[in-house]
Amino acid sequence: MSARKLVKTAYRGLLIAFFALVTAHVTLDLGHPVWWDFLPLLLAHVVLVVANRWGGAPDSPRAAREPVEVEPPVTGRWIALNSPADHTPSHHTHAYGQTFAIDVVAEPEPGSRPAFRALWPMARRNGDFPAYGAPLHAVGDATVVRATDRARDHLSRGSLPALAYLMLLEANVRDLFGAGRIIGNHVILDLGDGAYALYAHLRRGSLTVGEGDRVRAGQVIAQVGNSGNSTEPHLHFQLMDGPDPDTARGIPFTWRGTGVPRNNEVFEVPAQRAGARA
Questions:
Q1: Per residue in 203-227, is it b (16+ CB within 10 Å) or e — as a string?
Q2: CA distance 58 to 146
Q3: Cis peptide bond upstream of 89, omega within 30
Q4: CATH superfamily of 68-275
Q5: pTM of the full predicted structure?
Q6: pLDDT single digits (tens) 230-252
Q7: What mean pLDDT is predicted for residues 147-151?
Q8: Residue ranges per domain, the chain?
Q9: d(CA 112, CA 134)
Q10: Side-chain half-sphere of 218: how many Cα atoms within 13 Å?
Q11: C-alpha distances out from residue 90 to 61, 81, 102, 218, Å
């Protein structure tokens, strides 16, 4: 077993132990202190932190690599979040090849995207967000190696209670079942030269391509959704060195004509650019 698989197996095993202890404590009225139940959860996160900070961490990139230039996956006016232009790993973990990942949310007009609320409304319908249903384009000529869009699109997690639920419970449960539950509906493109593009959190039933299909740069391949470990409809995009997010390592990217927008930076991509080669 590789070091990467070993770390992930230990992490998921500790999470399972945590949920088993909590369930046993509630149903069997065990006599030990409640805080004991949380020891496996603490150890699980220690495993990740140590692995990510340790030299040669299991999920860290193998070697420095020049950014791969690809076409932007979206058109219109967007805002960047969790950008690798500000820090890496951009999502505070190398897991699932996310070292250089970026999130983008649509905001066609200033203020058109619902703001995060402290308490109410705790959640919103996906249709309230302009990103939901937005077309996603192939970032290069490629072969589809993975494509799935059967997971449901859940409500947003746009308040403190909903975010706490996501971070403390939902995300950990999803992680138990592997990368697919985290990234939700997704498509992975083989761009050649050892680079693979991952589009995550897609809309259920929106894929226009299937595994084995050849696609051209600019071709519409899916729509933005809110599936998997997602707080609101958005695109999570990354390049990685293999087709399996559970073992792949991240590769830096740059979008042709756009670069890598920084956190909270507004950027616009003309529609004609994506459609030029579709």
A1: bbebbbbeeebebebbbbbbbbbbb
A2: 23
A3: yes
A4: Glucose Permease (Domain IIA) (2.70.70.10)
A5: 0.80
A6: 888 999 999 999 999 988 999 99
A7: 94
A8: 3-53, 68-275
A9: 14
A10: 11
A11: 13, 9, 7, 26
